[in-house]
Amino acid sequence: MRKSKKVIITCAPTGSIHTPSMSPYLPVTPDEIAQASVEAAEAGAAILHLHARNPEDGRPSPAAKDFMAFLPRIKQASDAVINISTGGSANMSLDDRLEGAHAAQPEICSLNMGPLIFDFSAAGAKVETWAHEWERDYVETSNDRIMYNSNSFIERIMREVGEAYGTRFEFECYDIGHLYTLAHFADKGLIKPPFLIQGIFGILGGIGADPRNLSHMVTIADSLFGEDYVFSAFAAGRAQMTFCNQSALLGGNVRVGLEDSLYIGRGELAKSNAEQVRKVRTIIEELGLEIATPDEARQLLDLKGADRTAF
C-alpha cells in the first residue's frame, strides 16, 4: 500500500440507494447537492463522490443535464476533487451510466470492479409513508436486481473515460475477487498506478462488514499491487465509522456520506453530510493523524487537475 502521512476523506453526499422518504436531510435537488458538497468540503472532505438526481422526484438520474446543474457550482465554490459515479444504479444501461462522465470529463470516476447482487430492500423498513410513487418499488425489488459490470463493460469504461479524458478511477471493490479483476486489467496495461482501491463492505451481495474482511482485503491487495495502490474503505450502514477508524489505523483513507449511511449515531439521522465529515475528521485527528487537502489528494493519486475537466 502506498501510504501517506495524511488521510484523504471522501464524502458521497447522495448516492442512488436511499430515497427522499428515508431522510429529510438527503440532498436531491441541484441546490441541495451543491450545498451539501461544498459544506462537506469545508468540513474537510478532499474528494466528493457524486451521483445525480431527478430534481422533480429525487430518483437517481444519469442525465448530464442533472450533473451539470450542480457540478460547476461546486467547482466554483470549492477546490475539492470531484468524482463522478459510473455505477449509477442497477436500472441504468451502461450508456446511461457514462453520460455524466462523458459530459464532465472529471479528474476521477468510480468504477465497479465486477457484477454483484445489490440488495438494499431492507432499507425501507422504517419508512411509514412514501413521498413518491417510484420509491417503494425501487427499494423493495432491489433483491431481484444485479449491478451488472462485465469485464467488457469495465474495459469500455477504462477506454472511453480513462484513456479518452485522462480521468483516473476509484476502483470500487465489493469482494476479494474484484481485486483480482483489477490486477487483470493492470496486467493488460489498460490502467496505470497508483490505483485508488475503495473497499466496500456491508452491501448484501458483497463482502460483509466484518473488520477481519477489511484486514484480509488489505493483505490481498498488498500481495497483488505492492506499493502501487492507495487504499480507502467504508462500510454501509451502522458500521460506517468503525470501518473508517480501522482503515485509517491500517494506513488507508476513509469515505463517509449519506450515500453510505443516513445516520450519525445509533438511531440518530445525520442532519448533513458535513456532520459525518466532521465526525470522521475528529476520529482521524484523535488518532494523531492529519487530513489531506484536495491538492495533496491530487498529488497522491496523480490526478490531472481541475483545470482539465469539462465543467
From TrEMBL:
An MF annotation (GO) of this entry? 3-keto-5-aminohexanoate cleavage activity
The domain of life is Bacteria
What taxonomic lineage is listed for the species of origin?
Bacteria, Pseudomonadati, Pseudomonadota, Alphaproteobacteria, Parvularculales
Keywords assigned by UniProt, alphabetized:
Metal-binding, Transferase, Zinc
Q: Which Pfam families match?
A: BKACE
Record-given protein name: 3-keto-5-aminohexanoate cleavage protein
Give the cofactors, semicolon-separated: Zn(2+)
Q: Which Gene3D superfamilies match?
A: Aldolase class I (3.20.20.70)
Q: Which PANTHER family match?
A: 3-KETO-5-AMINOHEXANOATE CLEAVAGE ENZYME, 3-KETO-5-AMINOHEXANOATE CLEAVAGE ENZYME-RELATED
Coiled coil recorded as keyword: no
Source organism of this protein record? Hyphococcus luteus
